[in-house]
Amino acid sequence: MKFVVGIDLGTTHCAVAASRADRPEVTLFQIEQLVAPGEVAAQELLPSFLYLAGPAELAANHTELPWGQATPIIGELAQRLGARVPGKLVASAKSWLVHGGLNRKAPILPWSAPDNAPHVSPYDASSMLLAHLRAAWDHSHPQSLLKDQDVVVTVPASFDGIARELTVQAAAKAGMGQVRLIEEPQAAFHDFLGTHEYDLAVQLGEAKLVLVVDVGGGTTDLTLVRLHLALEGSTEPPQIERIAVGGHLMLGGDNMDAALAHLGQRKAKISDLDPTEWAGLVQSARRAKEILLGDEPPDDTVVSIQRRGSRLIGGTKSVSLTREEVNRVLLDGFFPRTGPDEVATRQGRVGLTTLGLPYATDPAIPKHICDFLRRHHGAAQEAGAAIVDGLPKPDLLLLNGGVFNAPALAQRLSEVLAGWYGEPVQLLNHTCLDTAVARGATRTGLVRRGFGRAITGGAARAYYIGVEGPDGTSRGTCIAPRGMKEGTTVDSRDRIYELMVNRPVSFPLFCTTRDHADSVGQIAVLDDDFDALPPLRTVLRSKGDDWEKGIPVWLSTKLNESGTLELYLVTLELPPRRWRLEFALRAEEAPERSSSPAADLQESVAKLFPEARRMSERAFGKYPGELKSLRRSIEKSLGPRSQWSSVTCRAIVDLFIELAPQRKCSSNHELNWMRLVGWGMRPGFGFGGDEKRLRQLWVLQREGLIHFGQKTNWGDWWVLWRRVAGGLDREQQESLFEEVMPWLSPKLPQGGPRMFGQVEMVRLLAALERLSAEQKEQAGNLAFGRIKKTGVWPIGRLGARQSFRGHTKDVVSAAVASQWLERVLDLDWDKQQDAAFASVLMARMTDSERDIDAGLRKMVLKRLKKAGVPPRWMLMVSEPTALSDKDTKQVLGDALPTGLRLT
Q: Which of 34, 151, 251, 779 could form a disulfide with 179 if both were Cys (CB 3.0 to 4.6 A apart)?
């Protein structure tokens, strides 16, 4: 028997609905799960929690499911166990899946867990949740395995192509095979349509515009649906088209839990919670919210704060939260009575974070709704909606998400909208807020089989690839227009681009939900309406003479049913050559090779750098007298080294790795070798084959400096490792830390060869971002004793609130950064020119758990203003803001060249 199965992979819980493919009767699937040690029950909802139990924490018979052992524990029991031991609980995996600022396939969850505790990646956590659903279904339907069914998985409308692709991959890893994706607000509206199949015309009346507000556990999704009315006198329901979706807004139930946790913390008069204690308090606040907003709520309930390092009872403090307090916090904080002109300020690419997640800085949901409606004024007007003082007025409102199980919240939002327009907006009746999305996903699958009414609209976003304009400005060329149908391909043959090959390139990708519709190939200025997606950084290789001049290509784009893009670069020549580009995940390594007609870089070195190779081999061979002028000669051949492309730099590295044995010939050999390799290998990552190069260099590091009697060589030795530090793993960075720290201590080591170059040692330590917070604190305290020689830059880097390559958990505490900042503020900034930028790095607003306090922030801003720093530095301290390219270069080095340029 064939089924259509809808899966709501929610932030807080998962739900599954199904229908026979030949009979549109949607029912909820009861999901078997552990609800207590050794106790299994089937329930409509599977809480989206994983508990990473220790080896002997639970007996084997306590974790037995009907289909096998639970590893990890998922669902209700996981949530219960995690309330007692929050450091082992994985929550909000879905929110992490869309977090573009980190490696979503790296084991980083639970965020608050110590490094030596078990961790899983957001991607794996999502796959494990889906695998549990698949196993439960297969156990119940052995003759109709889930991989053989028509499966539809829901995602937030604001999910970009990267998050959608990760969801599809997670489902495949879970054994579901190929799944299709549907946006959650659309699914909720599909459920409404299916529920009112026989009286739909009556329910919708003459409405032209529907606003769907979906506030889930992790995100707020906003969607506008246009109703094309049937001809007058017709009994046919209107045609339905989704015309707009909101941007990614990480604002939902998780934020409300955090707000209530802050309330509990204030009432308990405790200010020094560590991340694990805070995570436990948030879970306790979540339970309190569900109790006080549920059916027949009590007047109050208790939240508990479990302090670590104390006896169980003696270390626990409990405070009472009343229903009135909770309603006030949630109503006034998240659904305040705002005016029709009050919109949320659009934040930069970086937002405030709680336990690592970048939540929206303005929690007022009505402000975001107002901003959304005003941004889509044109689409709403075209749909025939009334416009009230520039604000589109929806005719109908559909609410979705467990948050609206609280009648007070739904009522408040209705009151706010009524205040904007002078009259109420009709509220559509929902079915069940917790299961509507799963039911709607099933109905979406049934529509494809001829049952029910379709919602059209195509791609909610237009996609653009970054190009360099004739004047060097950043622009984007449209490669997938808004409304593009899934499963279709568009070609941009009318616009030809020059593709730079055989060198590292970056293909920036952008998307926008704005109403203005560009056609394929049109150029747009990349303003604030565009969101940057993770780019692909790779090398597109080609044989022939097109290394310097580039080759002409056109773009071909396919939009898969999952909402992900396939982008091809196609040459004009016959037969055409095609390059398939897959956009890498942010913070994850770009592919080391591209699928292109290629030759390995090593094979082209002799052709691309014949003169540089000849001069280097002579100087490192029979003519050592040429060493003195070698670097000048290479620059004369290849151009100034400051202008070398990354491919030139890496080719130099590969050449001198071959010549590594000759560095032993003299101290001058070794000095030239270190300077050329260090310059060519910076910043240690970002180019295909860098991992292999670093493995080769690390073997030489273990050999140590050959000519250790030369002080000059020692300085360049540490410079080399500072320049490549970004590509070193934690173990390698800790090895360097342990090597240099004794030589920075007041009492130098006795015996063995003496190490020199203490100034560069300190600068090296500052670049080791994978060190623990404790190690960075040690290094920073030593650096203060050498400020006159090293400057303040190392202290700023060691105390930075945001790492470039390291883990956020490894930054020094806010208390340590504050102490360092106070000392830096006492310095004479006229004599310490890098003090201002160092202060910015330490005072930068990034995370509620890591930020300095407001008073010190004001002092820093006052000092920065007096120093006349660039405005963007002030902005980085006053609100969450991404580093500019210029500031990034100041810390990391050169950016990669853009891969395409307009001709």
A: 151
Domain 3-183 shares a fold with domain 462-581 = no
CA distances from 304 to 288, 290, 297, 602 (A): 10, 15, 19, 61
pTM, to two decimals: 0.73
Which pair of structure tokens corresponds to residue 482?
Answer: 């808004």
Q: Which long-range contacts (CB under 8 A, 24 or more apart) does 625-630 make?
A: 627/666, 627/668, 627/669, 627/672, 628/668, 630/672
* CA-based max dimension of the chain: 100
Q: What percent of the residues of the chain are helix, what percent strand, and what percent coil, each to the nearest 5?
A: 40, 20, 40
H/E stretch holding 19: strand 13-20
Given the candidates 3.90.105.10, 1.20.120.450, 1.10.540.10, 3.30.420.40, the CATH classification of the domain at 3-183 is 3.30.420.40
Quick one: average pLDDT of 116-121?
Answer: 88
* CA atoms lying within 13 Å on the CB side of residue 833: 0
Q: How many helices (DSSP H) and strands (DSSP E) are in the chain?
A: 30, 35
322-340: per-residue pLDDT in tens?
Answer: 989 998 899 999 999 999 9
Whole-number pLDDT of residue 316:
75
Lowest-confidence region among 63-67, 377-381, 609-613, 742-746: 609-613
Q: Please give the pLDDT value at position 546.
A: 53
In this prediction, residue 736 carries a pLDDT of 95
What fold is seen in the domain 462-581?
A: Substrate Binding Domain Of DNAk; Chain A, domain 1 (2.60.34)
Q: Report CA-CA distances (Å) from 751 to 53, 713, 740, 748, 755.
A: 48, 20, 15, 10, 11
Do 351 and 255 meet the contact criterion of CB atoms below 8 Å apart?
Answer: no
Q: Decide: 538 and 594 in contact? Cβ < 8 Å.
A: yes
Structure tokens at 630: 């070698």
Alpha-carbon span 736 to 808, nearest angstrom: 21
pLDDT over 90 at 178, yes or no:
no
- What are residue 46's DSSP bridge partners? 14
Give the amino acid at 526: L
CA 424 vs. chain centroid, Å, equals 38
CB-CB contact of 326 with 253 (8 Å) = no
Average pLDDT over residues 735-764: 85
Angle of CA points 662, 608, 719, to nearest 5°: 45
Task: Give me the chain's average pLDDT, please.
Answer: 84
The structural domains of the chain, with segments of one domain joined by +, span 3-183, 462-581, 600-728, 767-898
User: At residue 361, what is the residue type?
Assistant: T
Residues 6+ away with beta carbon under 8 Å from 18: 3, 4, 5, 6, 26, 27, 29, 149, 442
Tokens, residue 578: 């095609």
